[in-house]
Amino acid sequence: MKTQRKAKNSSHPIKAKVLTLGELIAATYKAVGEKGAPKILKLAIESQLVRYSPRPSFF
User: Fold this and answer.
1) Rounded-to-integer distance, Cα 20 and Cα 23, Å
2) How far apart are CA 46 and CA 51, in angstroms?
3) Per-residue pLDDT tens for 32-44?
4) Nearest partner of 44 among 56, 33, 36, judged by Cα
5) Residue ranges of the chain with per-residue pLDDT less than 50
6) What pLDDT, on a 0 to 100 scale, did the predictor assign at position 49?
7) Distance between CA atoms of 5 and 18, rounded to whole angstroms?
8) 3-state per-residue secondary structure call for the chain
9) Looking at residue 58, what is its pLDDT?
10) Phi, psi of 46 (to 5 degrees)
11) What is the reported pTM?
């Protein structure tokens, strides 16, 4: 019998890590390999999970 996990406290949201597009591509290929990476990257871009900014924002 599986036990249910307790939900994490949502009062402390997790801050997203900022990656360059190259870092995102490299990390995706490393995680899922050559067969799955293009599909995952395409899904992320089409669903607007990836935001493109021509200049990096450091502040």
Assistant:
1) 5
2) 10
3) 999 999 999 999 8
4) 36
5) none
6) 81
7) 28
8) CCCCCCCCCCCCCCCCCCCCHHHHHHHHHHHHHHHHHHHHHHHHHHCCCCCCCCCCCCC
9) 62
10) -70, -30
11) 0.60
